[in-house]
Amino acid sequence: MSARSGRQLSRLLSQKKRICVPGRTIQPTRFFSTPSQQPSQEGGFQKAKDKAAVGVFDWKAAGLFIATGIGLYFYFEHHKAQVQEQKRNELKKLKYGKPFVGGPFNLLDAKANTRFTQDNLLGKWSIIYFGFTNCPDVCPEELDKMTEVVDRIEKSHGEMVQPIFISCDPARDTADQLEKYLSDFHPRMVGLTGTYEEVKATCKAYRVYFSTPPNAKPDDDYLVDHSIFFYLMDPAGNFIEAFGKTSTADAVCLKFDEAFVDWKQRPQERA
């Protein structure tokens, strides 16, 4: 074969790009590279991978999640406030329903010389104190405080409180003795007395302890040990609060103002 023939054969083989195998001819597989598409495919794959890693949580889902959380928060806060208000109303019903202090009684009004019962408490606020006219110091101090409280309430709200003194020494505290003793205190102070059994029943209704001997005589010399409280009662005859020796006039007036505001919000009881 000449050199020229050899070059032609080589050229022919390079153009055809075929592989010869005895008995058949194999056409080589051609691979086409598309470099411009490879980055796009890799980027799409990465995005799919990232999405699979975080699921479907995107900004829209995040906003919905936050809005739902805020809504649930305000819902539970509102429900909590409703429950608390319901409890407060139940406590008010308990407090102003059946009183823990007070009840039926029947005593003698020393000044009017007429019977005075629980019905005489209706329509006015009342401050009630239990004591005895031979008390050396505590009773006068408490009655002075009652007088100050009533005067201050009258300046703010008018004449709506009746001060009441109930004797727990019926043997010595006659109607005349009571009227004379109470003249040193508030001019509208009502003095009540009665028999030993009547006084005992009244003290029991108001949870008042007293140690007057049941068979005491007017000329006997003895001291009476008793509870040192006066009671605030509303115009429906319900117990509001008890004030001890350490309670100041300021504290009593403040409590009255609170009770008065609450009372105005209960028209069903004022009717």
Description:
The chain starts with a helix and ends with a helix. Helix content is 47%, strand content 16%. The chain is elongated. β6, α5 and β7 form a beta-alpha-beta unit. The protein has a 7-stranded mixed β-sheet with strand order 4-3-7-6-5-8-9. The protein has 271 residues and is an alpha+beta fold. α4 crosses α7.
> What topology, given as strand order, has the largest sheet?
4-3-7-6-5-8-9
Radius of gyration: 49 Å
Helix content: 40-55%
User: Which word captures the global form?
Assistant: elongated
Number of helices: 8
The H-and-E topology, N to C, reads as: HEEHHEEEHEHEHEEHH
The major beta sheet can be summarized as: 7 strands, mixed
Amino- and carboxy-terminal Cα gap: 137 Å
Q: Average pLDDT across residues?
A: 79
- Number of β-strand runs: 9
Stretches with pLDDT under 50, minimum 5 residues: 16-23
Sheet-strand content, in percent, reads: 15-25%
- The chain-level structural class is alpha+beta
List the helices and strands and how they pair.
Layout: H1 3-16, E1 19-21, E2 24-26, H2 38-54, H3 59-96, E3 106-109, E4 114-117, E5 125-131, H4 138-157, E6 161-167, H5 175-182, E7 190-193, H6 196-205, E8 229-233, E9 239-244, H7 249-264, H8 267-270
Helix pairs in contact: 4-7
